[in-house]
Amino acid sequence: MKKIKVVSVGDGLGIQLPQEIIEKLSVKAGSYLYLNETHNEINISMKKKPTLEELLERVTEENQHDPVDWD
């Protein structure tokens, strides 16, 4: 768990993400983060496009279709 400080940004509040997190998640200016508040916690997540390798890991015998004859 990382401790970060909430700072004033214009009329609102903001947080500064640690460089380690920025690099690991490839966060850039303009990236969207998703907040989920539960009880006294705020969880921050980032949806990203899966890599080809991640997509291929999801392929199973059950979710493959039969070959298609395009002729």
Brief account:
By secondary structure, the chain is of the alpha+beta class. It has 2 helices and 4 strands. The termini are far apart.
**Percentage of helical residues?**
10-25%
What fraction of the residues are assigned to beta strands by DSSP?
25-35%
| Cα-to-Cα separation, first versus last residue | 57 Å
Mean pLDDT: 89
Gyration radius over CA: 20 Å
Which regions contain 5 or more consecutive residues with pLDDT less than 50?
A: none
Going by helix content, strand content and strand pairing, the class is alpha+beta
For the biggest β-sheet, the strand order reads: 1-2
Q: How many individual domains?
A: 1
The oligomeric status of these chains comes to single chain
What does the overall shape look like? elongated
Please write the string of helix (H) and strand (E) elements: EEHEEH
Main beta sheet: strand number and arrangement?
Answer: 2 strands, antiparallel
> If helices are DSSP runs of H or I spanning 4 or more residues, what is the number of helices?
2
Number of β-strand runs: 4
